[in-house]
Amino acid sequence: MRSLIDILELTTDEINELLDVANDIIDNPSKYSEKCHGKKLATLFFEPSTRTRLSFEAAMYELGGNVLGFSEAQSSSSAKGESVSDTIRTVSCYADIIAMRHPKEGAPYVATMKSRVPIINAGDGGHNHPTQTLTDLLTIKREKGRLNGFTIGFCGDLKFGRTVHSLISALSRYENIKMVLISPDELKVPEYVKEEILDKKGIEYREVTTLDEVMGELDILYMTRVQKERFFNEADYLRLKDTYILTPEKLNSAKSDLAILHPLPRVNEISVAVDDDPRAKYFDQVLNGKYVRMALIMKLLEVR
Ligand code: NCD
């Protein structure tokens, strides 16, 4: 039985296979409509979510399966003081697979030790978010036709942004990728990501503080929200939240085939005027998320 806690638990071949299945689902959805008939997915969300939880649920319904779960810790026995371990032991008696999001780093990993069924990490604190990464990879593959040979800029909250950490990990295994890390000093990529991923894999990267100085070099721009819920004090959040705001004017110096990604939710960091630019791909990303999650649920349930 396999879970998915960190994107690097999947080999490159397995990732490529998941993306191929997702593309096949996009082309032939009816082929997949009964694949998970009689199976149940539990979504246990101890933190807010719109896309991740609903795309998991839509994915399971589109596979012919069923869904149970909770969307806030307050409506579960966690509010009475139950531990994650006990909650997981319980839910794994009812469901065939569990997608969970938790504010504590490592909580989904702890869950795997108590669960009878596969666990999918749907985001753990400021750490990892592997299914968003599959979504991002599918979007890059569909937009660029490849997962190698490009320059990607990560912009915003690179410290607490778990989607950034997971995507950097995944891309570090593909050839000839340059990374530009654009953030205020306070929100730089954590040292452990630099040491264990970027340096170890010999990735060409540099850190800058303004978007304008690098815009023209980028093939992909990955914008992120400043992660308000992870700040220790509000004053720091307020000072940093609007450091980068992408506007149509800022895109004047960008490549004509730039792909602008964002895991969403967006707050202020991309002006709505950018949505009409053909380079804006963040809503395509939302749709892709459902298909990769369908492919992943099938893989972990060992459904062919
Ligand atoms: C992201 C997350 O939860 O980490 N959202 C998502 O799952 N698409 C990004 C964010 O909340 O900023």
Explain this structure.
The structure is a single chain. By secondary structure, the protein is an alpha/beta fold. It has 2 domains: 7-128 and 289-300, Rossmann fold, CATH 3.40.50; 131-285, Rossmann fold (3-Layer(aba) Sandwich), CATH 3.40.50. The chain contains 9 helices and 9 strands. The strands form 2 sheets. The chain has a 5-stranded parallel β-sheet with strand order 7-6-5-8-9, with helices on one face. A 4-stranded parallel β-sheet has the order 2-1-3-4, sandwiched between helices. Helix 3 (84-91) crosses helix 4 and helix 5 (130-144) packs across helix 9. The longest helix has 19 residues, at 282-300. The structure holds N-carbamoyl-L-aspartate (NCD).
Overview in brief:
The chain has 9 helices and 9 strands. With 304 residues, the chain is of the alpha/beta class.
Extended strand count: 9
Cα end-to-end separation: 15 Å
Low-confidence stretches: none
Query: Which secondary-structure class do the elements indicate?
Result: alpha/beta
Per CATH, the class of the largest domain reads Alpha Beta
Overall geometry comes to globular
CATH topology of the largest domain: Rossmann fold
Note the beta-strand portion.
15-25%
* Overall number of domains: 2
Percent helix:
25-40%
Mean pLDDT: 97
What is the CATH-assigned architecture of the largest domain? Answer: 3-Layer(aba) Sandwich
Largest sheet: 5 strands, parallel
Instruction: List the total number of helices.
Output: 9
Radius of gyration: 19 Å
Tell me the series of helices and strands, N- to C-terminal. Answer: HEHEHEHEHEHEHEEHEH
| Bound small molecules, deduplicated | N-carbamoyl-L-aspartate
